[in-house]
Amino acid sequence: MTTFEEKGKAFWDWLVANGATISDKIAFKDYRSENSGRGVIATQDIKEGDVLFSLPRSILLSQVTSSLKDKVSELSELPGWAPLILCMMYEIDKPESFWKPYFDVLPREFSTPMFWNQDDLKELEGTDIVSKIGKKDSDDLFHNELEPIIKKHPELFDEKKHNLELFHICGSLVMAYSFLDEMQKLPKKKTQEEEQEDEEDDDDDDDEEGLITMVPMADMLNHKAGFNNARLFHEPDCLQMKAIKNIKEGEQIYNTYGDLCNADLLRKYGFVDEKNDFDLVELDGLLVVDVCCEGQDEALKEKKIEFLMEEGALDECFVIDKEYEIPPELIVSVHVLCSTKDEFKMMEEKQKLPKPKLTKEAKEKIETILKKRLERYPTSLEDDELMLTQVKDNKKNALIVRIGEKKIIKETLANVEKTPIAVEKRPAPQKVDKQSKKQKK
């Protein structure tokens, strides 16, 4: 038995010894040759609805179950993922930790862009990932929130070991493998702005939030777009992974990380799906404003932006996907941003937005927006496709993201170019459906 297999068996035995129930129809399988690490396979035919495993909440790792909660009073005051990350930093290398068999099967190295060198990061230039890696924000969270606690408690932490590097490892594990347990609620930590809004709103439904937790065994299931056949259910006394369709003997069992585009899959989990039906591209609002308002009076431009945001048409970004269609909100925003002073004054007075008609001017502006978005990539689509067979690992993943995004932009541009122009008349104002916007990443 290899070390990899021994660790898997020790983890399995630990689960069972601590109250987990695991079906005899599943087993671990080594998928490292497919860059998928450890996965779960069906050893017998499984029917839809079968429980694959059941986990008591006592086996989950969170700020509620870690012994650190009784030793660090500041834990509950930390924001977001920080309490769980600090608990993991405390537990991960303790030989006597209750979760040691679990930590032994979790990765310590990651292929997410957070850990890439500068040479590999250059391959992401132009993609939607660059502004979302968040390394500086992550570093600031450690230095401002966690490091002071670590220094304050030398009896619990070793500054040399419990450092920024370990923080990034634990943070990456939380981002990739944690679940939100809606059955366990904690008081929601709010910003000053949120507190002020609460004072003006009597509704207290949002005063609690679900508990972010690590779920041993659930995170052993891999993801593959279109192959999801299992789902985690949160019951009052346990968590259960159930088959959501029939699974044949020998098939891998897949959970789902959601309908994510390749940019998000790479950023969060370090892999991509070469054939991803959920790929998309963001057209940022600033690009739209720059193209449409070039040479305009600054005060008028700001008024238009404020008006569009109040009406819910202009957002941080507009999303285009594999339907290759222009969002109506983008067309509306272009009309408003390109309007004359008198036309805009009329819109303000009526407090209504124009209809999303693709006029000659709107069509030209949208074509320019798409072309400028394409210019952000330092290479062409043809160059990328030729290079794809010559690279591997991080560079290959970056190429797949770039190729997917470029294809969407090009197909959308082609779709716009062949779309007939609407009647050349400034559209009559109308209300825009604020709920119809596609959700951005």
From TrEMBL:
Top-level taxon of the source organism: Eukaryota
Coiled-coil region: none
Gene Ontology CC, one term: nucleus
Entry's localization field: Nucleus
Annotated ranges, domain SET: 24-258
UniProt keyword annotations, A-Z: Methyltransferase, Nucleus, S-adenosyl-L-methionine, Transferase
A Pfam family the protein falls into: SET
Bias-annotated ranges (Basic and acidic residues): 423-441
Compositionally biased residues, Acidic residues: 194-209
GO molecular function: protein-lysine N-methyltransferase activity
Any Gene Ontology biological process: methylation
Stretches for region Disordered: 187-209, 420-441
Keyword Methyltransferase recorded: yes
Name this protein carries in UniProt: N-lysine methyltransferase SETD6
Organism encoding this protein: Rhizopus microsporus var. microsporus
High-level lineage: Eukaryota, Fungi, Fungi incertae sedis, Mucoromycota, Mucoromycotina
